[in-house]
Amino acid sequence: MNNIPLIACAAAVLFSAPHSANAQDSNWTLRTGPASIHFNASSSLNVAGAPSPGATSLVSDNTALAFEVGYAATENIAIRLALGIPPTTTLSAGGTLQALVPPLTGTLGKVTYGPVSLTATYSLGVLGPVRPYVGAGVTYL
Fold it and tell me: How far is 124 from 82, CA to CA, in rounded Å?
């Protein structure tokens, strides 16, 4: 297991923590930290139109370093751009599918992806320790 992304995320959180006290001085914010992506994958395999019993596929979960840049346009409206270091996930064969994929490792392939989200939020005010908001945005994945 490669722990480099997890170590990089932990280091980014530790080194960025002292700067969070200055966030009140500007309309701009910069947040960084770990982003964990967990897949809930399922598949079915058909060979020549007939189901292949016992064939499964597996998708590895990822942890990557993520960043968010935000701008508070008003006291209630904020715009944020979130992105991360593109992780790579491995698609693996399982069950009876392993016998069909050379070499014997059962690796079907690898996919590198980089999520980017642009969002806008409207704060509904402060209700005690909670600040509820509504928002919308677009994501490219």
Answer: 22
